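Weekly modeling sync, notes
Attendees: S.R. (lead), two postdocs, one rotation student

Agenda item 3: backlog of single-chain predictions. S.R. asked that every request posted to the team notebook include the full sequence so nobody has to chase files. The rotation student volunteered to paste the first one in as an example of the format we agreed on. Action items at the bottom.

Example entry:
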Amino acid sequence: MRYLLLIILAIFIFFKPFFLEGKLPIPSDALVGMYHPWRDALSDKYPNGIPFKNFLITDPIRQQIPWKWLVMKQPASSRGEWSNGTIPLWNDYSFSGTPLLANFQSGVFYPLNLFFFLISDFKIAWSGLILLQMILGGFFMYLFLRNLSLKPLFSVFGAITWIFSGFWIAWLEWGNILHTALWLPLITFTIDKIYNNYNRYKNYIYYFVFLFSLLCSFFAGHLQTFFYLWVFAAIYWFYRRLSIKLFLALNSIFLILSSAQWYPTLQFILQSGRGMDVSNALTRNDWFLPWQHLIQFIAPDFFGNPATLNYWGVWNYGEMIGYVGIAGLILAIYAIITLFKNNREIKFFTICLAFTFLFLLPTPIAKLPFLMNIPFLATAQPTRLIFLVDFLLSILAAYGMEQLLNYSFSKRKLLMILFGCGVTLLVLWLIAITGNLLVAKNNLKLPTGVFMLTAAIMFFLMRVKSQRARGIFIIILMVISFADQLRFANKFTPFTNPEYFYPTTKTIDFLQKDKSDFRIMAVDDRIMPPNVSIVYGLKDIAGYDPLYLKSYAEKINIMEDRQQGSGFNRIITPKNYNSPVIEELRVKYILSLDDIQSPKLIKVFQEGETRVYLNKNF
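Predicted structure, as returned to the notebook:
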């Protein structure tokens, strides 16, 4: 138990702003700092807008939080929320009406939604759900590593490496991706228990835990992450040579129990415009992990960081980052080089890692599912495979760390790895200097310093014979590794003041006072981003969701005078207020930052730069 307290301590240090300062792990500062009418409401105090930490993290406030709010709360004139004792089927507030349960990411059936019943304050319940990701993810990984016969301290190291990895931190505040991913180590743990236990009664318990974990992961709300998790779990099942019949039986039960979610989602997919959204996948340089972004496994901010507004890499920083720390990477490589031949577990995890990279990077094999247009795979972005990369690297790093405890470990091979990492950093320095890459040069200083400290500790370990002294140096190495990952996590992750959580403004109050059945329309993307109106009980014709009804997209194409069949890339924000379609969609108010001259519109309210126009033809 005392070793689990180390994981809790690491999480507490990271969540210190939440526990000690009352701040929330919610990127609300991006909402009030980037968008109107909140910028207008706060313009006296912040004429240039509230400073926000990370502009990249806006999806949680535009998607996951509003959807969960609609599932668990009871906005004005809404229908079908759990708070009413009915199943949340429909979202009246986005896309002029769209499926809610079927959009999958709303996580309607996720068991940990219980948090919102236990804690009445939604923002605190959501924060608890974010915190719980790290606690459960760390505990489950610890259980799995202990079951692999790793010593407690090294199991803690692997668990902390996992929950502070690049994938984990990048998606921490989304609230559904990590709740999908965190069940993987518990699933593999139960597979091992089924394999190791021949007592039928005990096996029944593990059958239940396996099914429960699989269902929790599925219901958490991120289909692609679950698909990768299920594939890995299936491979691990057969690696352990467990019964095919048992596998089919358990998964058949899973399919039946999960049908309340996958059946409506399948129907939604069949009626969605998702295919148009990703039809150009192979021509995009951001669909797979670009080769040059492998640099981020050793220097995470070589291409900059969105939190410091200097990212110059390919597309989305969060999609590309898989950092497990300098020490974690070195130790994972060391475990592969020294244990691959003689350790069956290491061989399995290494082969899985190689195949994951094969499909993560833009290799000819990775492109086959898209060329063959294989259902589901042809619409899944391969960069999310970093989830499995970080999971496997964390396991291998724990094995590598344990090897250092023995004085007889292979010093020559460790020196080779340190030399290779040193040369890699040297080459990166040469590229940064010769290319005059100022951001890269600045962001190479810290990884270089951490590498030098890590190398120094490893050199001491090569010379010290005392088991006690070796243990002390290993603890120091673990602390350095944690400090490295903690710095990375703190730099990227915003913790915000509670008053920034969807505050009201005069504009919002004005719209809410109108009790008629109407919709709004923003003609500027800087006003009221799609889905945010859910929290205020205001219906919008815009929407943001990977799944949207194709029929609605076609109607908006007509409204916007666009070519039929053109994609919207997940976001539909109509702007043509002169189209007669807005009357069909019951648009009563148009929001703008500029004056509008139109015979059918009359300005009825203004707050700062935000203007509200009444559609006289409503």
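Discussion: group reviewed the output briefly. The beta strands are 90-91, 98-99, 519-522, 543-544, 571-572, 587-592, 601-607, 610-615.
Action items: rotation student to repeat for the remaining queue; S.R. to check formatting next week.
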